Each structure stands twice: as C-alpha cells, then as structure tokens.
C-alpha cells in the first residue's frame, strides 16, 4: 500500500545543500516525501491519546514550533534542540490575563455549580479545556471556606457580568447565594494570586508576575516559596481524614477543589522562583488526594465526592506544565480508571526524564523515532560521572520493554533544591547529547536489518510510515528508520497485554500495574520483578487464530501475526 506524504521545506540552517536542484536522485523504491521549497504544515493533534495534549492555548501563552516531519530526517535537524520533541512547557507559559470577579460572604458549603449558575448563562467564564473558572479560596490548614473568585475570558466579559449583577442590586434585588447576601466586586489576577498563596513572604504580584522584594524584617526568613509544607500537609489531611476538621466535614470536596485551583494558578511560568522539590511535594499531595478520593468514591456515597470531581482533579494535573508524563501516568494509575490509563502510550508510560515533557501535537512516529535514538544513545553515554541526575533502576526488568531503552533519570534527593530553569536546562543538554549519540550510532547500523514495524492505527497517520532506506548517493539525507521489534510493539511485549485484575486493587503500593509501565519513583518504590499477567480466554478471531484479552479500547492483538488490531 502506497501512502502520499506532504512535501516539506528544508531548515534554513542547511543553506543551499537541500534547496539546490542538484540534489542526488532519491532511491527509486522510496515512497516518502521529498525536500522542496513548500512550507512545512503544522501537525494535527493526536486526539484521545495523550491527556492534556489538545486544548485551546490561551493567548497569553506562546505557540510551540512544529515538530520534525515524520519521514525525511537530516543530521542537522535531528540534533537541533528546537526540533527535538522534548521540551519544558513551563518556559512557554505566561501570566494569565483573564478578567476576574470576586464574590465575598459566600456560604461555607457553597458549590461550584451554584457559583456558575449565579453568574448566569450569558457569562463568558473560562471553559474547561482552558482551565478552572471558579476558585473558592480555602484556608489550607483549617479547610475553612473564604472568598470566591470567578475568571472570565476577557476583562470586558467580567465587567459586563458585574454590571448586570450590580444592576439588579440597584433595583432592590440584592444578590443572594443560598441564604446569604453576597458582595460582588471587580477584582484582578494579582488579588486572586495573593489570596491563593497567602503564606508567600516578600512577594508582590504585578500583572500576574511574582516579584520578590528584599527582606527587611530581621524576624522573617524572607521568600521561601509559594506554598509551605504545613499547607500541603493540611490539604492531604483534610482529604484522608475529613472528620478531624468541622469545615472539611461540611464540605468534603473543598480540599480537592483547592488543589485544582492551586495547580491552575501556581506561577509555573516563574521558573526561577521554585525548585524541583517544590514540584515534587505538590505532585505528592495531588497523588495522595487522588488515591483518597478513589477510596471514598468506592466505599462511601458522599455528596460532592464523585467521578466528576476525580476527573476534574486529573485534568488539572494533566494541564500542569511541570508534571512529567510519567507522573501524569502515575495519577491515571491511581485513579483506577481504565479509560484514563488507556490514554497513555508507551512513550509516556516509560518517560525517562524528570523535568522535561513531550512537545504537544507531535506525531507518534516522530516520538518513537526519537525514543529509538535515545535508547541507542543511552547505550553509549556514560552516566557514571553524572552526580545530579541519576539513571535509576537501570537493570529493572520492565525497562527491557521501554522504547527509550534502559534509561530512567530522576534527580537525587540532595539536588532537588535546583531552580526549575536550571534543572530543565541541564536535562535538555543531556537529552540533546543522547539524541546526538543515538543518531550517530544508528547511522553506522545497516538499515536493511531494521524492519518496518506496523504502527498502531490510532497512534499515527498513514503518512507517518515510510519504507525508505538511505543510499550512498544521498549524503545529505537520512530517512527515518524504525526501531527493531525488540523495542516496539510485538506479540511478546507485555505493554499490549492489559490485565483485567491485579492483586493491588487499591492504593498501588507496588508503584505500577503489571504490563502498564513504571510509575514515578518519588511516590512508589520499584518492585524487584513484575507479577503474573492475567489473560482469560476469548473467542477465536479470523483465520482460526486466538487473540489476547481485548484492549481497553475494544480492540485486541492477534497472536501469530504482526501487531494488528481487531475490531
């Protein structure tokens, strides 16, 4: 079957080498794209595969450049840090500029739907794909409900809603929520952030940006972060033991809503003001809340604690630019929701970096090709002299099936005080070195020994597959080769053998579900070896072949044939 591939423009760094009409002829058997002067099209989003990958990016954020085209790869482009589909999303974020309305004197047990209904149908509040619109401030140590802030798409939208509600008050109809008269006023992002992080010392908010001021108080420690350990311990305690606080008993969902607002409003864009440790303690708090919420949903029928709240918490974590892909996969595991778990492909379940993430909207074939280069580079690069970033559990049996090879980088405990911008710059240098070494290693291999691998149809488009091989007459071209079957999807790979049961059905003390990948090591220790997989018999498929237990998306893997999906 032949596929038509869109033509791409060569990078400017190559000058006239590829743009010249004297390019050597391509291999006559090559069915991929050729380098021309046509512009590079933007890649479509991969719907349904990576949570948080497809969203409407606010206008205050920068648009990431398109990733590498899936077929033609040149040596100069493959090692270009701007084209590698690995980055840090925090550096592309900017301070939000949404309109804000403040609602005071609200009832302690008020809910978000009540606030949304109070604003009216015509209010243009933030949509769920952008972020959380309603922020009910909670005192993290006591779980006491404070004020409420509502974010709108623009300042004009907030002003229009405020004028409409204020008009009712002038006519004698005082705004009311429940049995309380509430106070409505126009507010700003600075006021919202100040109330959201009240324990942050020596910080002034200016247009959403935190500015640290000199400490003039001899009895103060100065700026130590936006959140304290006491606050984070409080939100965990209110989730796991709500009966210890009278406010948490009346509104058990408030602590989870506070965490959702914290993830959305934390100044991740201020990469010089928080550390890797700050990210880790926030992730630990979210992870324990997810585990506690799942247990309460299954054991009790508490009003306000439902699947929608769990999904909102997961979506807020997926939107967090500082959580790496394996951390998000860990949260999906602890949610015990198979629909959430099935959204993560192998490139996320075995993510080898700590502060770096995948570049959004990158085709799966591009990610897998770079994973192959990284796996080759991991065999060459020596991490013995790397004191800050350690390749943990290199000999763990599950890493044998990782598309990145035996690579799992995490920061040492005594190095977690690195500022975020320094940490991801250091990791980006390592990732670039891995790709560079892997590329040079793959160039020395015989391309004909690397078979064309059948790609999952829901992970790549037909245009992403190429059967091209480089020839000696093409010195400036390197056609993206595919990894050997031992690094990819095949019938013996446990990644495709989804279990229907597990001995650890709650809490996941083992750190991962067998066959699903590896959870983030900060919260869950690694097991010495994976446990048995469960595969109940199913009816035979076409050609009399018996296929494995159907996957979470309703499709199965046929035994005895190359990887393929059955409807």
UniProtKB/TrEMBL annotation:
It comes from the Eukaryota. Residues 1-47 are annotated as: Disordered. GO terms for molecular function: nucleic acid binding. This is RRM domain-containing protein. The lineage of its organism: Eukaryota, Fungi, Dikarya, Ascomycota, Pezizomycotina.
């Amino acid at each position: 079957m032949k596929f038509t591939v869109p033509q791409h423009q060569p990078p400017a760094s190559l000058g006239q080498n590829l743009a010249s009409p004297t390019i050597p002829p391509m291999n006559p058997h090559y069915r991929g794209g050729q380098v021309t002067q046509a512009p590079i099209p933007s890649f479509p989003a991969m719907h349904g595969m990576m949570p948080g990958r497809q969203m409407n990016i606010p206008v205050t954020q920068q648009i990431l450049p398109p990733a590498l085209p899936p077929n033609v790869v040149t040596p100069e482009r493959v090692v270009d840090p701007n084209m590698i589909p690995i980055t840090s999303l925090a550096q592309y974020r900017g301070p939000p500029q949404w309109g804000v309305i403040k609602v005071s004197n609200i009832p302690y047990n008020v809910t978000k739907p009540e606030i949304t209904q109070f604003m009216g149908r015509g209010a243009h509040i933030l949509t769920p794909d952008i972020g959380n619109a309603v922020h009910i401030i909670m005192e993290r140590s006591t779980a006491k409900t404070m004020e409420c802030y509502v974010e709108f798409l623009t300042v004009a939208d907030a002003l229009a809603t405020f004028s409409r509600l204020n008009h009712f008050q002038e006519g004698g109809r005082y705004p009311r929520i429940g049995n309380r008269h509430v106070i409505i006023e126009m507010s700003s992002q600075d006021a919202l952030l100040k109330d959201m992080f009240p324990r942050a010392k020596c910080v002034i908010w200016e247009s959403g940006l935190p500015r640290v001021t000199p400490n003039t108080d001899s009895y103060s420690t100065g700026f130590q972060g936006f959140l304290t350990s006491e606050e984070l311990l409080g939100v965990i305690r209110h989730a796991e033991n709500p009966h210890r606080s009278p406010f948490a008993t009346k509104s058990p969902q408030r602590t989870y809503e506070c965490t959702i607002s914290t993830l959305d409003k934390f100044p991740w864009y201020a990469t010089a003001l928080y550390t890797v440790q700050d990210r880790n303690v926030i992730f630990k708090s979210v992870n324990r809340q997810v585990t506690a919420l799942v247990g309460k949903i299954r054991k009790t029928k508490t009003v306000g604690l439902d699947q929608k709240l769990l999904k909102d918490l997961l979506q807020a974590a997926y939107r967090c630019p500082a959580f790496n892909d394996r951390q998000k996969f860990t949260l999906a595991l602890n949610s015990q929701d198979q629909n959430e778990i099935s959204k993560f492909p192998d490139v996320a379940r075995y993510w080898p970096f700590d502060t770096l993430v995948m570049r959004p909207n990158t085709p799966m074939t591009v990610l897998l090709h770079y994973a192959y280069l990284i796996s080759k580079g991991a065999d060459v690069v020596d991490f013995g002299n790397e004191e800050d970033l350690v390749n943990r559990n290199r000999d763990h049996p599950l890493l044998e099936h990782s598309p990145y090879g035996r690579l799992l980088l995490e920061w040492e405990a005594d190095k977690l005080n690195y500022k975020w911008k320094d940490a991801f710059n250091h990791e980006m240098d390592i990732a670039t070195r891995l790709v560079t070494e892997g590329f040079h290693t793959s160039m020395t291999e015989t391309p004909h020994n690397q078979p064309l691998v059948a790609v999952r149809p829901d992970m790549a488009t037909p245009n992403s597959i190429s059967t091209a091989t480089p020839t000696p007459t093409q010195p400036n071209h390197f056609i993206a080769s595919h990894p050997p079957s031992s690094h990819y999807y095949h019938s013996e790979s446990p990644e495709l053998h989804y279990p229907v049961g597990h001995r650890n059905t709650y809490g996941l003390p083992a750190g991962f579900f067998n066959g699903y990948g590896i959870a983030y090591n900060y919260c869950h220790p690694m097991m010495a070896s994976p446990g048995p997989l469960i595969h109940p018999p199913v009816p035979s498929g076409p050609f009399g072949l018996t296929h494995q237990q159907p996957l979470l998306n309703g499709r199965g893997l046929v035994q005895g044939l190359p990887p393929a999906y059955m409807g």
